[in-house]
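Researcher: Here's the sequence for the chain we discussed earlier.
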Amino acid sequence: MAQDDQNVVVAGTGAVYVAPVGTAVPADLATPPAAWVDVGYVGEDGVTFTFSRDQEDVNAWQVSTPVRVLVTNEPVGIAFELLQFDRLTVALAFRGGTFAGGPPPAVYTYTPPDAGASDERAMLIDAIDGDAQFRFSFPRVQLTEDVEFQLVRSDAVRLPLTFAVLASDTKWSILSDHDAFGAAAAMAAATNGGTVLDAGELEGAPQVDAPAEPTTRAGTRAKVPA
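Model: Thanks. This is the structure I predict for it:
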């Protein structure tokens, strides 16, 4: 494809939504239904996606290069920093828990979950570039890394969270109304007699053995500024 500055995406703003695991992922770019809750302000570094691949070479006595490459794991990570410290963000950071207390003015009590508790969620991440929108949908994620934060007078309380994408019957996906997505599909169809090819077929990339039950999928790396 030729150089086209209209296809250079700058995600100037966006939003992160969470919902109970099992919530249907929206099929359009409209404001998500009520089950999807906006987590609020995200730190200026936005959202970082990490798409990894663990591979194992099968080597042979007769040659110095691998004869096969086995894909053993394809982890996907999502990381961002929450700037709001409220019921939703605290529950995300500590993997659940409960709040108690009467109507304002009142004293509220947060009680963390039992040791070893897990908190799976569904997640949407919207990235906005002018009039164009990209929506990254993940049907099933879980907090994985340590959560470390500080109470200081010189900065806001920041909650750095990292989630792993878990296996799901529905694959993660990207929805967009950006013309670049439509142009790529049209180009693929034109080069294959009307059939849209995937990226591997278009580039002639060699195929490798995939894991029998992959938990995540590989892709690219991107950042979404807040």
